[in-house]
Design brief:
- It is built from two helices and three strands, in the order E-E-H-E-H.
- With 74 residues, it is of the alpha+beta class.
- The chain has a single domain (1-69), classed as 2-Layer Sandwich (Herpes Virus-1).
- It has a three-stranded antiparallel beta sheet.
- The longest helix has 6 residues, at 33-38.
- The radius of gyration is 12 Å and the shape is globular.
Length: 74
Amino acid sequence: MLDMRPDCERCGADLPAARPGAFICSFECTFCAPCAEALDDRCPNCGGELMDRPTRSAKLLEDYPASAQRRHKA
C-alpha cells in the first residue's frame, strides 16, 4: 500500500492524499507537479520516472490513513 506522503520533498508543498497533483517514483519519493516538471519527471534521489500518484477516497483514508511524516528538508 502506498505511503501517501503529505508533502513535496523538494519544496514542502502540501499534497493531500485525496487530491490529484502529486508525483511519485517507484520508491514513493513524492513531489508536487511544478517540482516534477522542473525535475523533468525524474526522481533526484534514484533517477526513476515520476508518475501521477493515485488519490485515495475519503472512505479508504478512514481505514488506511495517509502518512503524516513530512519529508521536506528546508
